[in-house]
Amino acid sequence: MTPAPIEDVADKLHTAAIHLLRRVRDVDAATGLNAARLSALSYLVFAGPATVGELARAEQVTPANISQLINGMQNDSLVERVEDPNDRRVTLVCPTKKGERIMREARTARVGLLTSMLSKLQGSELETLSQAAQLIEHTLRP
Amino acid sequence: MTPAPIEDVADKLHTAAIHLLRRVRDVDAATGLNAARLSALSYLVFAGPATVGELARAEQVTPANISQLINGMQNDSLVERVEDPNDRRVTLVCPTKKGERIMREARTARVGLLTSMLSKLQGSELETLSQAAQLIEHTLRP
DNA sequence: TTAATTTGTTTAAGTGCCTTAATTAATAAT
DNA sequence: ATTATTAATTAAGGCACTTAAACAAATTAA
Q: pTM above 0.85?
């Protein structure tokens, strides 16, 4: 078999990722959170507490926006602000237990849906997907 | 090698997809469009013209929201409303040439970034990614 | 050690996304 | 014909998001 041009692989992979995430986010409605809050909370729960600035870069919005978004989420007990003793300019944003629970439940639901969709695949095909996921993570490392 | 539990594959795949899209969307800023418009326009360009209701389901927002979003995008000549002769209740939303151009340029930039990241991989690894993308698309089919 | 600069967050004011509820219009059903 | 259903829009209001400005803490320089 002649090797696939690298641009074609990139294109297919990009499209597949979009379609995959479009599908699994169907279950997000159950969380009661909107897209902005879900994405921010997801980052905080799975990448760990972050400063306002770091969150802003991750979400690709302004620090001002994050500051206000956190106000609302703090008001709903999803996150809390914690002072950083090392650098008192920054404020660390941490998920609360409630925020963590909601996010983990949402992730479980997403993965559950995806699991049911993958159930028709053979072992060798699952192995291909597993290796692909690993390759992607490795490739994205800076 | 003992086969990976299917839930683990689903979880790894889900996470990889998130990380991949988080990375490539870095180039979206160049479009001048915000997330809501980019996502809607992406659907219209790559899945074809859609009704307000279909777009609302795809974007997981209300028809009222789409109606207003389309107002703004129409105002910026990104999309246009077209009457459906078969059912005059519905309005088809179509990307304009400008909208199509912007979207395709954005996609090209994303895929270009991803291509550069995949350039360090071997042919066999690219083949694994290619097959994985194909498996995902096939698995997601309803 | 002050002073100036840089870095991180917040506040204020304004635009646009997004919601629910109500309205209008077209199709389908009886 | 009337009624019910489906599709889109409008109106009013809340929240996401922006830029510009203000503020506070840390770093650098004199």
A: yes
